[in-house]
Amino acid sequence: MIKIAVCGANGKMGQEVVKAVNEAHDMTLAAKIDIKDGEFATIMDAKNSVEIDVLIDFTQPKSIYENALYCLNNNINIVIGTTGLTDEQIDELKKLSEAAKTGCLIAPNFSTGAVLMMKFAQMASKYFKNAEIIELHHNQKKDAPSGTAVKTALMMSKENSDFTSGNCQEVETIEGARGGNSYNNIHIHSVRMPGYIASQEVIFGSSGQILTIRHDSMNRECYMDGVLRAVRHTYKNKDFVYGLENIL
Question: What's 20's DSSP letter?
């Protein structure tokens, strides 16, 4: 049985992860970690009391990097669902994971539908020179843009060097009206609104046509299959992976 610790266990995603682990035939829940009424307040507290094979982290952007460093430095494989890591931090975790031979899987999105949306957007980028991303989340999400949007833009940028081909010289009369300018001039627009869980659409345009690729998450249960796949991969392979699409 794979011994699992869930960090952020009392959050909305954490509660779903705890339920999924308890229902998995090949996993056992070793520790629920949360600063608010968790069995353990910190990863260190849990490690000193129980054996952990894989830690699943759904906490906050401000704490995820330090959590990951602790795990990789203490031979705890980690699956990261918390977004907000910088490119530099991801590179550093990759180096540390490989040096320590300890698994680290970072997935901006664990929904298989969302992963397919990202892959389809990358495929379409070969044929369109103009594209923008709109991501929509609940109003309790702290980081913007979402990790999914950033990862999508990164994947798209591998297929095209400029996504504002033919645009006129723009002037924003209200700062930020054109969204954030990411990889290879892909503009990302973030919406925060009660009622949403997680949605994203990638809009492609060329003369006489528009292509829209969209994914909507209706509940948090849709992420659990991807989370469990990530755990099994990380426990078995002990490698570094960025993006769920790399293990599907």
Answer: H
